[in-house]
Amino acid sequence: MLSKLNSLFFALSLTGPISVVFGQVVSQTELNEPLGGEAGAKLFERMSAEATGIDFENRFDHSRRWLELWKQYYNGSIGTGVALGDVNGDGLPDLFAVGKDSPNALFLNRGDFRFEDVTPEAGVSGGDGFGTAAALVDLDDDGDLDLYVCYVAGANELFVNDGSGVFSEEAEEWGLAFEAGSNAPSFADYDRDGDLDLYIQQNYLNGAGHLDGMPDHLFRNDAGRFVDVTDAAGISGEGQGHTALWWDFDEDGWPDIYVSNDFEPVDKLYRNNKDGTFTDVLREALSGAPYSAMGVDSGDLNNDGHIDFLAAEMLARERDYYHQAVGPLSGKLISARRSGVNQYMQNMLSVAVGPGKYMELSRYAGLHATNWTWATRFVDLDNDGWLDAFFANGMTRAFHDGDIAARMGKARSLSTRVRIYETSPPLRERNLAFRNEGNLRFSEVGEEWGFAEESVSFAAAFADFDMDGDLDLVTSNWKDELGVYRNNSRQGKRVAIELEGVSSNRMGLGARVALRSGGMTQTRELSSMRGYMSVDEPVLRFAVMEAEGIDELVVEWPSGARQSIEGLEFGNRYVIREEASGVGEPLPSEPLFRISRMKVPEGSVSREDRFAARKGQFLLPFAEDRLGPPLRVADFDGDGWSDVALGGATGQPLRVFRNVDGRSLELVESDAFEDDDLAEDSAIEVFDFEGDGDLDLLVASGGVELDEGDEFYADRLYLNDGDMKFGRASWSGAFEPTTAAVVIENGLILLAGGTRRGWYPSVVGNRVLDSELGEVSHVFEGSGRTSRLFVVDLDEDGDEDVIQLREYAEPLAWRSEGGMLVAWSEVFAGVGRGLWKSVAVADFNGDGRLDIALGNLGENNKYNVDTESPAVLFAPRSFSHQGKFIEAETLSDGVYPRESRIFHQVDFPEIASRTGTYAEFAKMTVEQAFGEGTLEEYARYAFSERRSMLLLQGEDGSFEAKPLPGLSQAGVAIDMVGADFDEDGDTDLVIALESLSPQPAAMIHPERSFLLLLRNDGSGQFEAELPWSSGLGIEAGEPRRLAWADLDGDGLGELLVSTSEGPLYVFEPGRLE
């Protein structure tokens, strides 16, 4: 009752003009003026214990730590936590630190960055066991923060706050005296009944008999008594957990939880079923998970209103140390028990690209490798309105060092093996900070911002200790005092938001808050446990650089209430009380596209049998077993409506759909198609072969699933009787795979030869046919590995030209001259060697000349290349080395192996004995590592351009190349189509982008893909729209091929999308009506 009266008092004593609904704003406090540091000071300044009064040494000195407890001690819950929050009600955030072998400590913030140790007076000294993590939460809903502390081999403790910062231990009374191997507590109101529930994540407990780690536990809060509902809720399995983060990944208003596990027990993403139960949906929801998952965090990284997520790993940033450390561990991926989930040894950044769709974009963002990371945090460090990234790094020993592990493996006793680790040096690393540059790009600025020293840091928690509106930092460190950093930022207009729940839990944990200002919307979620053992002050902070004021603050409360507040001002800290303000769910903006009303039959669903493409080719860099169904649109029955031809994979026939009056597509039955169902359709060409006025089908057969010389590799010709009754012509092509085909007006047919099975990237020869399907000699036959052929009148002289997209080469254009095709090398003279996948031709900048968009690998992959540093593939050309690939990277002094030696040992068992230590292997060129004699048995392929490009044609007919912008580079551009989608007179683009596996040898299910809309401003400058705003969301399957046609006759056009493991999608314009 007292807290309610205090809130009323503050509401009546507000200062400054505020036009809000009475009662919504409980209090307003003016923020202090940011003073910054002295001239030349870094953004973050480490404060000494003498300056702050925070005298806390985190000791790791248990007498049995290198004996029977060593695995629990150094391979279990290793770090210790920090929890921040105002425990005595004076408005200043205080600090609680957990000690491993030292006592826990509570420091009260006395202002001016001075703290006082009040641990004994507060009654929170702690009990037995090894301290791990703690949380400051208002469990009894009385308006003050209580304290829950976790231990390994000791009972957890609950300290209930009397409001003044004095605590009483009541874990037994609340049902929370849990005793086992607790790693960290994560609180949330998962059943939305207004009180906080608890997920206890465990790790390892010596003598417990759980070799894979301990099981986690879920406790439901039943009116102040916590009940273990783990089994009933569907929480299961064992693991060595590091972080459990509540995160509403599916945006349904119910908190879900991500559980990061070290080693093989794979991470879990428990979807809240809204009935008290959970279902693990990680495989369905995300692209994968780290193998040794560490800290995790979530945040809206691109300010689009949707929360993104990162799970950290231990990938080394430096190439040499990767080969010595994480690289050797990669061998564990071969035999890992992964429950159908892709696991990789790198950070995994899952970006929300559309409803229910996340893409792994860590390499595009530059956040894939952050060394041995514990806490990963998304916070606005520099007060510019964009969430930056911080990573706390280091380890007590370099347990991932392959050379140390090799020494240990030779030891004859367990004690000797442990002794090797004990006498090795600690792994001290620099904590890293990445500035958010916008568009999901980050740059590492840690040293520039004040994080230069090397240490072993675990937790990283944030609070505004000096009340100036920016975030200060505390790290917990191994065998060291806490790292306390003052934020010296002077930029940005700031506002702080504290929540007071009414129907929701008092703290508002789980609320999502959006601030709209100056055309930018920032979104934050209030969570308890974040990063790794890190609990922030429960206050949300926003900052902007240029906007004058705050347009609106919207709070989506855990209870489901939605609250809109206007009239708030920068420079203040507000307490917002939950109140349903009559604002319903926001009306979604009308997307440009929506699913067409045209009916599409179930027969459009494309399926592909699982094929072990890497069997006998362990390090095959790019698989070709899931290329997806080709797609063509044409009027096959002459009724004026565009029909659809859709290819099939091996085991599924070609399908043709009749367009019935623009209302539906109906599958046309054909025995001819069924008879050829074992063929893998790679291309479909439509032309009137017979000259009888109706359109026939040339279907190319490709893929790598069939044996060499199989009859179903033969290309086929289907003749149309005029009413879509197709019969197989007597002609068939050679029993060799084809990847692409085009038919030119002059009667020539170009067929690009496919990969020789087992001999990637070598291809069978390209072929040229005349109008009677007889082979003719042409220089095109030797033009190289081809992914796509595209017909267009590029020089606009009335004759059809051809663009040939090649791999490990530049694209090549062919000009029609006097009925002949002549190589036209000048078109792509400024384009480098790439793995070119797709093309669209249009006048993109409105100057009346045709331009070219080219799809490539993009920048979300491991191939950081340029002209001076190409990626190199050594591919075998002798049977003695068949299937044994060597990928390499070009450095300033030579060409070096790209992949870890542990992987190469699968193909070259003797390489370990020849190349010495992992550290020595890291410094060897490919010639030194594999021997020049071996490389003589290999062919060398290279590419120096991975970006997708836009070529603008100048007045002289030459083309100037520049990269397509931003998110266009977020994946492999497997197809693209250009059209004026928004009817503004400019040609836009839609691109199908696919993630590329960072470690293909470890991939066990296909990567994800999504559709990106690029809106053209008329000058050839594009703005990207994700499916959230474009409407191009794919619920089932992965998008593959694209087409644009007017199916319903309304003159607007529809976008057709074929998918792998999904149906044919037809999108129609939405905003234009």
Derived structural class: mainly beta
- What count of structural domains? 3
Morphology call: globular
**Based on DSSP secondary structure assignment, what is the total number of beta strands?**
75
Number of helices: 21
Query: Which range does the strand content fall in?
Result: 35-45%
**Biggest sheet: strands, sense, closure?**
8 strands, antiparallel
How much helicity do the residues have? 10-25%
At CATH's second level, what is the architecture of the largest domain? 7 Propeller
Mean pLDDT: 92
In the CATH scheme, the class of the largest domain would be Mainly Beta
- Give the name of the CATH superfamily of the largest domain: YVTN repeat-like/Quinoprotein amine dehydrogenase
Low-confidence stretches: 1-22
**Termini separation:** 55 Å
Summarize, please.
The protein folds into 3 domains: 43-487 and 529-538, YVTN repeat-like/Quinoprotein amine dehydrogenase (Methylamine Dehydrogenase, Chain H); 593-863 and 945-1069, Integrin alpha, N-terminal (Methylamine Dehydrogenase, Chain H), CATH 2.130.10.130; 871-942, no CATH class. It is built from 21 helices and 75 strands. A hairpin with a 2-residue loop joins strand 29 (432-438) and strand 30 (441-444).
